[in-house]
Design brief:
heterotrimer; A alpha/beta (251); B mainly alpha (311); C alpha+beta (406); A: 251 residues; alpha/beta; six-stranded mixed β-sheet; five-stranded antiparallel β-sheet; 11 strands; 36% helix; globular; C: 406 residues; alpha+beta; six-stranded antiparallel β-sheet; three-stranded antiparallel β-sheet; 12 helices; 9 strands
């Protein structure tokens, strides 16, 4: 399988505090990789290194390399905006812009170039269909995005990311702020999306990882303890710490 | 004095509460006092004989384009229609100039400047906002008048030593920019960073993020800043009177024409005035209050619609 | 590729405009400071308080009991252009008035000079002091003909030296003193704070401690809030309509006076004081109040012994804000007191605060920009100090949110 991401001895420091220790992890094309582990283990930090969102945090330093295809992400010559165009991100708390639903989805593309109304209409509809939201909002595209429910807002954020036609979708605990029904809808969506997109999802819920992911990576205190095919990981974990986590001895 | 018994304590409690209540009531009553006084005195020229000068005609007062037709102290033909339009015109122009400068400055301080520079600039702006208007008026009279006069020479337009619409607008704009910047800056700073991260994650540049997302999210606060700015521009008296030129008739739209506002006219001639000429200032003040209330009402209405966050 | 760079061009353009516009606001501050200091700095010295505002012409006669000549050398080094008389202990220098006529200025006067104190012939029995920079118009003698300034300083000094008995001296005092306005401003600050702070704090206490969420309190709060939107000139009208008649009827005032001014300023200050105090009262944790009441203290004791001390930083901030407002207020005082500059200040008579003094000078013909700028420097210095103090206190209040004074 083709590798979309490959990290080599990736370490990250918040000031003097080391948050990621020598991570070597490969993400494969058109699959779902779940990052699990207890709070503060570094999984969200790792996720953010993939699209250089850690740049926004002061006092952060990186060692080692992250490869996106054949581009080294942290190379000085790399255009970070280009990277972010090809990688979409969905955040833990839905964060739609204070604009209409239509304008939210159109935002990303409009930042890159101008579109005719026809082009944009088609693009928006396509993204909303892909994120399973279109039917629910097709009659009120001009209404404010803030009027939507939490689950709908999150699917809007997914549509917003998909509108950029990324190769990868990074999702940082996308359902932790949602109710079970909305969560189920989004999990369904992810399973559908992985046919066309590479997805990396940070999740607090092992059950979610077991349900939807192909590959699971277990983080603990900044270390990557074990990465394995999901079924194998949950059935027969190799590392004793993985087993302790899975059986709930700590969380 | 030691308070020993519970009964005494209770009695004192009730007394103190009544005193404090009275103070609150007194404070609130001042607005009532202001309203009553302004209305009573302001309306009197229209309903009394004014010591033999006769009633002032309300319609002419509100629509007239000549301040006083006839000699002072001997005529009742007051008209401030032209002043109403001039005042609104000048306030609008000042707002148009000041608003972009305030918004960009606030954006710079809140998002673009490095922290230490931003903090210094914020303090500088807060101090600017606290400078009394008379100092701005002095600056206007000493510097802006000359500048505008020289400008008028270059452009080839008549101007009387710089007293003009342009001078007034510049001075007012300079005065309201700091206040508006402070408020806008607070609103911009309050925009949640999740929104900013969301925009950047989509591949937008920081500048695109600032202008498309941050300003949109801070809309409500920026609007408040505009409302306060326009309020100050409408009510400013001493600074305007030093640079406007005290025009006595005719609406002045041209930039280099002399002008006057409701407030500058109220101040004019204060040193020696009696009778109707004195009381008519209350009427002008009444009109000013009505205008300010109307403008505030309209702007707040627009703000609530804008706040709906549509576009 | 061109679409690519187009986006960057717009980006750069927007950034450029941001820089430009931001610098406009800060450049104007610079311009204002430069202007004000340029015009007014030269006049900053103790003379501002020593001299009266108006320069007046006084006829002075030597004191009755002054018989001895000075016969002294000057105890400082005089400029070469100063002509000095040993006998009388005075040094004159040449000047020129606006019309180009010669004037004689008193450059130096020796402490032992018999002319240092003179009797004011206009006001019986009053003494006045000869101060440097006064103009000597004319000296009349008992033993020779009169000296006139118009004839030049050297001649006047020689004539003075040759005389042993002076009849009278015509002196023009130097003006430009702002002592009266300073005193007025101080009085206004004191009176206004005495009225506004207790009432404002009392009202805030009532609204926050006793009636917090009642409809009545909300109504009062909204009434007080509307006061903040009223321009100060309207309060001036209020002062004219209510406070001037009030003071005229109850004191020996005959028109605008300091008391009516202070009352007017109090009304302007009230919303500020109430709002700032309420904010600082809100920060005091409910636990403090509950603890005090649980110990058996009365509400009054709780309010004044626990809540108020903890809210003191906020009340102090309100005081400082109030002072700033008073010092800067002009329009309201022009109505509520008047715009006539005075040197002798009485509470029941007109005078000007520093800000109104500027207005008065700027509306004279010709406008005195230099002295106005000097006063502006003083006002700016006060505003700056007050603002920094308020920032300091506010940051302490923020820390107080996590701690607490008691």
């Amino acid at each position: 399988m083709k590798k979309v991401f490959d990290t080599q001895n990736l370490s990250l420091f918040y000031g003097k505090n080391q948050a990621l220790k020598n991570i070597n992890l490969s993400i494969f094309e058109k699959s779902v990789t779940a990052l699990i582990g207890p709070s503060g283990c570094g999984k969200s930090t790792f996720l953010r290194t993939l699209n250089r969102m850690n740049d926004l945090i002061p006092d952060v330093s990186i060692q080692g390399g992250v490869w996106f295809g054949d581009i080294s992400i942290y190379d000085k010559k790399t255009d970070v905006i280009d990277i972010r165009k090809r990688i979409g991100m969905v955040f833990q708390k839905p964060n739609p812009f204070p604009m209409s639903i239509y304008d939210n989805v159109a935002y990303g593309p409009r930042c890159q170039r101008s579109y005719s109304k026809k082009e944009m209409d088609a693009l928006v509809k396509d993204a909303l269909v892909k994120s399973a939201l279109y039917e629910e909002v097709k009659d009120r595209l001009q209404r404010s995005a803030l009027e939507l429910s939490g689950g709908q807002q999150q699917r809007l954020c997914i549509a917003r990311a998909l509108a950029m036609n990324p190769e990868v979708l990074l999702m940082d605990e996308p359902t932790s702020a949602l109710d079970p029904i909305a969560t189920a809808k989004i999990e369904e969506l992810i399973v559908e999306l992985k046919k066309n997109y590479t997805i990396v999802i940070v999740t607090h819920s092992m059950q979610q990882a077991a349900r939807i992911s192909d590959q699971t990576a277990f983080f603990l205190l900044g270390d990557l303890i074990e990465v394995e095919e999901t079924k194998t990981f949950f059935a027969t974990p190799k590392d004793p710490r993985s087993e302790s986590y899975i059986t709930g001895r700590f969380g | 004095m030691t308070i020993k018994t519970n009964v005494t304590k209770k009695w004192i409690d009730q007394l103190v509460e009544k005193i404090l209540f009275f103070m609150a009531l007194l404070s609130a009553s001042f607005i009532v006092m202001v309203v009553i006084v302004i209305i009573e005195r302001g309306l009197s020229p229209f309903f009394s004989d004014n010591d033999g000068l006769g009633q002032v005609n309300l319609f002419r007062f509100l629509t007239g384009i000549v301040y006083l037709d006839g000699p002072t102290f001997a005529s009742n033909a007051y008209g401030i229609g032209y002043l109403i339009i001039s005042t609104l015109y000048i306030a609008l122009l000042s707002l148009l100039i000041a608003m972009p400068i305030s918004i960009f400055s606030a954006l710079f301080i809140a998002k673009i400047a490095p922290k230490p520079l931003g903090n210094t600039l914020r303090t500088v702006t807060e101090i600017l906002a606290a400078i009394p208007s008379i100092v701005y008026g002095l600056f206007g009279a000493g510097v802006i008048l000359d500048l505008v006069y020289n400008l008028s020479l270059i452009v080839g337009v008549q101007s009387s030593a710089g007293f003009s619409v342009l001078s007034t607008v510049i001075v007012l704009a300079i005065m309201i920019i700091p206040t508006m910047t402070v408020i806008a800056e607070v609103a911009i700073r309050a925009v949640q960073k999740e929104l900013i991260h969301g925009s950047l994650a989509l591949g937008a540049t920081p500048t695109q993020t600032n202008f498309k997302v941050v300003l949109a999210s801070a809309k409500s606060g920026i609007f408040t800043a505009a409302i306060l700015g326009v309020g100050r521009a409408l009510g400013e008296a001493t600074a305007v009177s030093l640079v406007a030129g005290s025009r006595r008739s005719g609406i002045s739209f041209a930039l280099f024409e002399t002008t006057a506002t409701l407030t500058s006219t109220m101040l004019q001639g204060m040193k020696e005035t009696v009778g109707l000429d004195y009381t008519i200032r209350f009427s002008i003040g009444l009109v000013l209050m009505v205008i300010i209330l109307l403008v505030n009402f309209i702007l707040n209405f627009v703000k609530s619609k804008v706040g709906r966050v549509h576009v | 590729m061109s679409k690519f760079s187009f986006r960057y061009v717009i980006d750069a353009l927007l950034q450029g405009i941001t820089f430009l516009f931001s610098s406009i606001s800060f450049l104007t501050l610079g311009a204002i400071l430069v202007f004000v200091f340029n015009q007014g700095w030269s006049l900053i010295n103790i003379d501002l308080i020593r001299y009266p505002y108006e320069s007046t012409t006084i006829l002075g006669a030597p004191l009755e009991d002054q018989n001895e000549f000075c016969l002294c050398e000057p105890n400082i080094t005089l400029d070469p252009e100063v002509f000095y008389s040993n006998k009388w202990g005075v040094g004159f220098s040449q000047g020129q008035d606006l019309l180009g006529l010669a004037t004689v200025q008193l450059a130096y006067i020796h402490p032992n000079s018999p002319l240092s104190s003179l009797t004011n012939k206009g006001i019986e029995g009053n003494e006045f002091v000869l101060l440097p920079e006064y103009l000597i118009q004319k000296i009349s003698y008992n033993d020779r003909s009169t000296s006139l300034a118009r004839r030049g300083v050297e001649r006047m000094i020689n004539e003075l030296e040759s005389s042993n008995s002076i009849y009278e001296i015509e002196v023009i005092t130097k003006g430009g003193g702002i002592g009266g306005s300073i005193i007025t401003t101080l009085w206004l600050i004191g009176l206004t704070l005495i009225i506004a702070i207790p009432i404002g704090v009392g009202a805030a206490l009532y609204l926050n401690e006793y009636a917090k969420h009642s409809q009545f309190a909300n109504a009062i709060r909204s009434f007080i809030e509307t006061l903040t939107g009223v321009p100060s000139i309207i309060f001036g009208l209020l002062g004219v309509a209510i406070f001037i008649p009030l003071t005229v009827a109850t004191t020996n005032a005959t028109g605008g006076n300091l008391i009516s001014g202070a009352l007017t300023l109090s009304v302007i200050l009230l919303p500020i004081v109430i709002r700032t105090t309420e904010e600082s009262l809100k920060v005091v944790p409910m636990d403090y109040r509950n603890a005090s009441l649980a110990l058996g203290a009365s509400r009054t004791q709780t309010t004044f012994k626990v809540v108020v001390p903890n809210a003191l930083p906020g009340i102090l901030a309100a005081v400082l804000l109030g002072i700033g407002r008073i010092v800067g207020e002009s329009a309201a005082l022009i109505f509520a007191i008047g715009a006539i500059v005075r040197d002798e200040i009485t509470l029941t008579d007109k005078s000007t605060s520093l800000a109104v003094h500027i207005y008065s000078m700027m509306t004279d013909e010709p406008a005195n920009i230099e002295l106005s700028s000097t006063i502006a420097i003083i006002i700016l210095a006060i505003v700056l100090v007050l603002n920094l103090l308020i920032k300091f206190i506010s940051s302490k209040i923020m820390k107080g949110k996590l701690g607490g004074v008691i």
